[in-house]
Amino acid sequence: MNEFVQGEFDKTLSNFNAMAADAALRLQIAQAVTLCVDALSAGGKILFAGNGGSAADAQHWAGELVSRFYYDRPGLPAIALTTDTSILTAIGNDYGYDYTFARQVEALGREGDVFVAISTSGNSSNVVRAAEAARGRGVKVVGFTGQGGGKLAPLSDICFRIPSNETPRIQEGHEFIGHLLCALIEQAMFPK
Fold first, then answer.
1. Annotated binding residue 124
2. What's the confidence (pLDDT) of residue 64?
3. Residue 28 has what pLDDT?
4. pLDDT value of residue 131
5. Regions of the chain with pLDDT less than 70
6. Matching CDD domains, A to Z (predicted)?
7. Which pTM was predicted?
8. Can you give the pLDDT at residue 33?
């Protein structure tokens, strides 16, 4: 058991060291913050979606923006498209699971908004379809994937490709960058 635990620590540290050494990643973070701040400053919103653990990330990050992250300030308009079971099941029943997020982007997304699309493989069909719907409406797309990027990467204005093929390592990287975005958006929108 100790060897397994140490191995997991080693893989996580290796992944984060690779991310920390990536100057392009730091530039992407700044660009994504700018996209989000521009959208919010213009009266837009940020939409989030993903499946499974990525759905949890979508809800987590939307909650950090609507409520607060590091300090008290006014709420920011952010919506997790993963939370309304009536909408999800209606779309799934009427159109199919592949459209659960695309239909919501069509209904809620407006030009200038940002859609944060989270898929460890980059190939989740409902997330990819939502990114396609976003692009068709003039909604900017910030993708979160593993190192391959999948089908989501070319649909993204910015794509965070975590340098791993292991789902837990990818999710750990996503969580870290998601927290950075929340903190930096908060600081930019409501400087202390």
1. yes
2. 98
3. 98
4. 98
5. none
6. SIS_GmhA (cd05006)
7. 0.97
8. 98
Residue 98 annotated as binding? no
Q: What is the pLDDT of residue 70?
A: 97
Which CATH number does the domain housing residue 53 bear? 3.40.50.10490
**Count of structural domains within the chain:** 1
Report whether 60 belongs to an annotated binding site: yes
167 carries a ligand binding annotation: no
Helices (H) and strands (E) in the chain, counts: 7, 5
CB 139 within 8 A of CB 38: no
Q: What is the pLDDT of residue 186?
A: 98
Long-range pairs, 32-38, Cβ under 8 A, ≥24:
32/142, 32/158, 32/160, 32/181, 33/181, 33/184, 33/185, 33/188, 35/114, 35/140, 35/142, 35/157, 35/158, 36/114, 36/142, 36/181, 36/185, 37/185, 37/188, 37/189, 38/112
Q: Is 174 annotated as a binding residue?
A: no
Q: Which two tokens stand for residue 24?
A: 């392009």
Residues 6+ apart with CB under 8 A from 23: none
Pairing state between β 114-118 and 46-50: parallel
Phi, psi angle pair for 150, to nearest 5°: 55, -155
User: Domain span at residue 106?
Assistant: 2-189
